[in-house]
Amino acid sequence: MNEKVFPVDAAQLAAKVDYPVVKTACADGKAIWQIAAPAVFMDDAMINKIAALAGSDKVDVATCNADAKADDFYNKAIRTLTIESAAALPADPAREVAELLISGGDDFFVTYGSFSTAEANVLNAVAEFIHSQLSFIDRNAYTLCEIRRFMGLYPEILRELMDKFLAGSNDVAAAKAAIAKVNSGIADKDVKVKTVLNSAAEFFRCVIRSNYALENKTALAFKLDPSFMAFFGEVSDKYIQAFPPERPFGVFFFYRNKISGFQIRFAPIARGGWRTVVPKAGNSPLDKYDAFNQAHCELFRENFVLANTQHKKNKDIYEGGSKMVTILENLDGADFKTTLWAYQRAVYEAFLALLLQDRNDIIEIGPDENMFDEMITYMGERGEAENYVLKSGIISGKEDTGINHKHYGVTSFGVYQYFIRTLKHLGIAPETDDYSVILSGGPFGDVAGNMMKLLNAKNADGSYKLANIRIIAITDGPAAVYDPAGMDREEISALIHKAALDGFNPAKLKGEGAYMIWSAAAADGTHRMATVVNGKVEEKAISHNDFMQLFANNIFREATVFVPGGGRPQTIHDGNWSNFAPNGQPIIKAIVEGANSFTTPSARLKLQAAGIVNVLDSSANKCGVITSSYEILSGILLEKDEFIANKEALVADLMDKLAACANKEAEWLYNEFNARKDVPMTDLSNELGNKVNELKAKLFDLFTEKPELLADQLILDHLLPIFRNKFADRIVRIPDLYRKAIGAAEAAGRIIYTPADPAVADIIKALA
């Protein structure tokens, strides 16, 4: 090997993949290392770590494809290293380098326990997992730093657990016995140490499979037995109280330095979006990581609640609910999309590799927070290339061969149906009466942006369909606007899907006291504010504290309806819900939840007790998942060119289907709400979701036991009209597992909503 010439094939391969490409050889008593890896993972600190691994400080570094675009996933910027060393080569240099990149250079468990880098990565993953669970018991006592410290104090116990894991065993009895004997002489400390070590043992007990032994890993991925939740529930009742009562069907856990997360599902076949949480850094070095630490502690609950909600909103389709949530550490000035995409690809490749080990794990991923079209396309292409059971159908929302949610506004379309039905419940004529609306989420976003589009829709003659609606407040990440006279509708419409709310022209503010504030801070930490004083728009600088007061309270306005269309989970909670009902008097009439988990369950109940109607997210924003379900079915039934040729007709059928699904449930809910006035609307939604999902499970078993009850017509009835009319013969392409799930979903809906339908008479009789 010529150490002066870096191999072209290695550089080209590294530009396409997300793992390092390593070539080594020995010449003249020296080892030559040639390494190429994505530049985003190969900073100077990592280069020094790799040089130390090679046993040399003589490193030639070069950068290739430096001008590669962030969205060019197959021609990425890479850094190449050529290292000359007198040290002997390790047994598997490529594995060593790959594991070092996954670790990010973290050598805590290498130092405290003499574990290999690969083993240390597993232990780092275990520490992350433990933190994600013990945060709900005592987040101050069980910080990640303390968890790692307690683990590092007992390397012999970790070695016992690791050796069993490497041998493919889940037997943790010996480790548990050793943990029981821990005695440092400090009783309070020992309680925490034993809790941490037993939690580590529980992790290893629950590993069903992992990608640890696979070559070319980009991150660690574990499939876990969800029974670990029972263990943590035994540690403290606080853990039990932190979650809804249902328990998952399956859990995946992912780890790489700077990113970790879960995929949680509530059924064997499940679908739900992937959101990546990227908390913003604080303005001061003293609070730089506060937002990250808060989101990090809430990671598992956010994922669990979203997946649980998804399961209930999936009642109209054959898939159960799931969700994938990852958290990426502060980017420290790095390019956002380049870094986000690199870490998302790393996690996705690890997840896909694990899914390919068992074709019974059928998971459909959808777009969510910080999921961009370029990544969606890439994920579909990788699923196709690796022959995943659903091929490119592993991800929905693709721009060309899918139904892009943001483009068609499918989620907001369902929210809008509930919005209109809620107004009618309140005795308001949507088209003519005067009423006001508050929104969270901005015009560039999917749910909020498309909701603004619907609220500002016009008739053929140019008049507004909702003639007298006033949007009085919008709170977006980059800005917040309040205008009691109603925000300028033309100005809002001009921003939709083109700019965030900070692009709103403050000169368009009208009402006395109206204001606009910008999130971006000046060098001195102040924020820009425009406000209407005596009919004129004036500008001034306000402190960060004043900004946060205005920003956080901008949703708490006197209005008819609040539609959360974006924002972090648990924005409305026990500590602030009363801002909507000061002194027990509600200042809004209804909330229609377009954003998932925007309000905590306990706050919802308090809001409703105060007299505010609350339409639950699992009902209001379900049309996005229905769309994704039909997209996946389209991929099964049609070739790509057929899908593209029939896409607009298919989407037209879909919109009719979405309206029918939303209105059918809305009518059921409001009929029940009017008849059972003592039951909160959100409880009725949960009751309906549980009722339908339990029935779907029974019907699936029934169709397994008595397949003759599953008629083709039931399958066809579930499909969109275009499939029934043009491609009815294609139902033979639907796998048997899917047929039973589709039949169960269709029959369950009919039994719940129209039990007199003769098509389900024999099925009802068989269930009896």
Question: Short description, anyone?
Answer:
With 768 residues, the chain is α/β, with parallel strands linked by helices. Helix content is 45%, strand content 16%.
Explain how this protein is built:
The chain has about 775 residues and is α/β, with parallel strands linked by helices. The protein is built from 28 helices and 20 strands. Helix 16 runs antiparallel to helix 22, helix 16 runs parallel beside helix 23 and helix 25 packs across helix 27.
Low-confidence regions = none
Instruction: Work out the radius of gyration.
Output: 28 Å
Distance between the termini: 75 Å
Q: What's the average pLDDT? A: 94
The number of distinct β-strands equals: 20
Structural class: alpha/beta
Q: What percentage of amino acids are in beta strands?
A: 15-25%
User: What is the strand arrangement across the widest sheet?
Assistant: 17-16-15-14-13-12-18-19-20
* Main pleated-sheet profile: 9 strands, mixed
